[in-house]
C-alpha cells in the first residue's frame, strides 16, 4: 500500500516536470526576436565655412592733437566754440602779435643796412684789386678789404634769417588746428600768458571719423591661425583687409562695417595677447574714444568643413569628445573627435568624422557601441 502511494507520487512529479518543460519550450519558441533600435541620424556633408572670431576691443581716436603755443605771449582772442567741429588750418587762438611785428621791422632794417654795407665793401674791394695789380697797395690791405666785403655778405644772410624767424613767430601768434576734428574745452581764456612748448595744452582736437578699434587676441589663437594658413586650411586672402562687424556696448549692431588694418608684432607679457587694429567710418559720431565694443573678424574660409550638432557629441571617461556613428552594417561605432570651435549650435570637427558619415543625434541613451540600430533621418537637421 505504501509502495503504491510512492509510485503514484513519482508519476505525478514526472508528469508535472514534463508539463513545465513543455511550457518553457513553447515560451521560447513564441518569444519574438530582438528588433534594431530606431535612432535619429544626420548625414555629414563637407561644406565651405567662413571662420570668424569675436574679440573684445576699445575705441581709439584716429588722430589726437594737443594744441600748445609755439611762441610766448598774451592770449588776445579765442577764435572757436568749445565742443564744435574745427577744420585743419583753422585759427583757434590769437596771441598778441605786436612784438613779432616789431621784430620783422627790425630785421628788415638790418637787411637794408647790410645791403648798403655790401655795396660800399664791394666797391672798396674792387679798387684795392686794381691798386694791388700796380703795387699801389699791399697784399694785406687788399685781403682786409676783400674780407670786409665777404663779412657784409654774411651780415645780409644773418639779417634775412632773422627776418624769416620773425615772420615764423608772427605766423605762430595765430594758433591753428593741425587736424580736422572735434575740439574740447579751452584751458585758457583771453588775457592768459602762455609760453612756447608749455606742458599744459590749450585745447585738444580729436578726429572721430574715421575711428580705430583696438582688438585683443590671445597669442595662442594667433599662432594657431598662422599655422592653419601655412597649411592652406583657411583661405588666407579673404582674411586680409576683410570686413569687420561691431557690436556696441548696449548690444546693438553698429551700422557700418570696418576693415582690419594690421596686427602688432609683439606680445603683451602681462596678458599674453596681441593687438589688432580695425578702422571704421563714424559719420554719426556714435563711437567715442574709450568705449568698450566687441568685433567679429573674418579669419578665412575652410573649404571642407564638417559641422556636427552639439547634441550629437558627448564626452567619454577621459574627457574626449565622442560621437556615435552608424556603420555600413547598421551597428553603432564610437568615434573620438577633435573639435575646433562652436559654430552656432554645431561643433566644427577637424578629425574623427568624414563626409557621408551618419551621426546619431536622437536615441543616444538607448544604445551602446556594437548595438544594431535602425537609422532614421532626423528631421530637425534636414
Automatic annotation (TrEMBL):
Chain coiled-coil ranges: 104-131
Major location category of this protein: membrane
Domain Multidrug resistance protein MdtA-like barrel-sandwich hybrid, residue spans: 64-206
Domain of life: Bacteria
Domain Multidrug resistance protein MdtA-like alpha-helical hairpin: 106-173
Endpoints of the signal sequence: none
PROSITE patterns given in the database record: PROKAR_LIPOPROTEIN
Multidrug resistance protein MdtA-like C-terminal permuted SH3 domain segment(s): 304-366
UniProt topology in membrane: Lipid-anchor
Keywords: Coiled coil
InterPro entries, per the entry: MdtA-like_b-barrel, MdtA-like_BSH, MdtA-like_C, MdtA-like_HH, RND_pump_MFP
Cellular compartments annotated: Cell inner membrane
Record keyword Coiled coil present: yes
Span of domain Multidrug resistance protein MdtA-like beta-barrel: 210-300
Family of this protein: Belongs to the membrane fusion protein (MFP) (TC 8.A.1) family.
Protein name: Efflux RND transporter periplasmic adaptor subunit
Species, as recorded: Colwellia maritima
Amino acid at each position: 500500500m505504501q509502495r503504491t502511494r510512492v509510485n503514484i507520487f513519482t508519476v505525478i512529479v514526472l508528469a508535472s516536470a514534463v508539463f513545465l518543460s513543455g511550457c518553457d519550450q513553447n515560451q521560447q519558441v513564441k518569444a519574438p526576436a530582438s528588433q534594431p533600435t530606431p535612432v535619429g541620424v544626420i548625414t555629414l556633408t563637407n561644406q565651405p565655412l567662413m571662420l570668424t572670431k569675436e574679440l573684445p576691443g576699445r575705441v581709439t581716436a584716429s588722430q589726437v592733437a594737443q594744441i600748445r603755443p609755439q611762441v610766448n605771449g598774451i592770449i588776445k582772442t579765442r577764435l572757436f566754440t568749445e565742443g564744435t567741429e574745427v577744420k585743419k588750418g583753422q585759427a583757434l587762438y590769437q596771441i598778441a602779435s605786436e612784438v613779432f611785428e616789431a621784430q620783422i621791422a627790425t630785421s628788415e632794417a638790418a637787411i637794408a643796412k647790410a645791403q648798403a654795407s655790401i655795396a660800399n665793401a664791394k666797391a672798396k674791394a674792387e679798387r684795392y684789386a686794381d691798386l694791388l695789380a700796380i703795387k699801389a697797395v699791399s697784399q694785406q690791405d687788399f685781403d682786409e678789404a676783400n674780407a670786409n666785403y665777404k663779412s657784409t655778405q654774411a651780415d645780409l644772410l644773418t639779417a634775412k634769417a632773422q627776418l624769416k624767424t620773425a615772420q615764423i613767430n608772427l605766423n605762430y601768434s595765430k594758433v591753428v588746428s593741425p587736424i580736422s576734428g572735434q575740439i574740447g574745452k579751452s584751458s585758457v581764456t583771453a588775457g592768459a600768458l602762455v609760453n612756447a612748448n608749455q606742458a599744459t595744452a590749450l585745447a585738444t582736437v580729436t578726429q572721430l571719423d574715421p575711428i580705430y578699434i583696438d582688438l585683443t587676441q590671445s597669442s595662442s589663437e594667433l599662432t594657431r591661425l598662422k599655422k592653419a594658413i601655412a597649411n592652406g586650411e583657411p583661405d588666407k586672402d579673404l582674411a586680409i583687409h576683410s570686413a569687420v562687424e561691431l557690436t556696441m556696448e548696449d548690444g546693438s549692431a553698429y551700422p557700418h562695417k570696418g576693415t582690419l588694418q594690421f596686427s602688432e608684432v609683439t606680445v603683451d607679457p602681462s596678458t599674453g595677447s596681441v593687438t589688432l587694429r580695425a578702422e571704421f567710418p563714424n559719420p554719426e559720431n556714435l563711437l567715442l574714444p574709450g568705449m568698450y565694443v566687441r568685433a567679429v573678424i573674418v579669419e578665412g574660409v575652410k573649404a571642407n568643413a564638417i559641422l556636427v550638432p552639439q547634441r550629437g557629441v558627448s564626452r567619454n571617461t577621459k574627457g574626449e569628445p565622442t560621437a556615435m556613428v552608424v556603420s555600413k552594417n547598421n551597428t553603432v561605432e564610437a568615434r573620438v573627435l577633435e573639435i575646433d570651435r562652436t559654430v552656432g549650435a554645431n561643433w566644427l570637427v577637424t578629425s574623427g568624422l568624414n563626409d557621408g558619415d551618419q551621426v546619431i543625434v536622437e536615441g543616444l541613451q538607448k544604445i551602446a557601441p556594437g548595438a544594431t540600430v535602425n537609422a532614421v533621418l532626423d528631421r530637425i537637421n534636414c
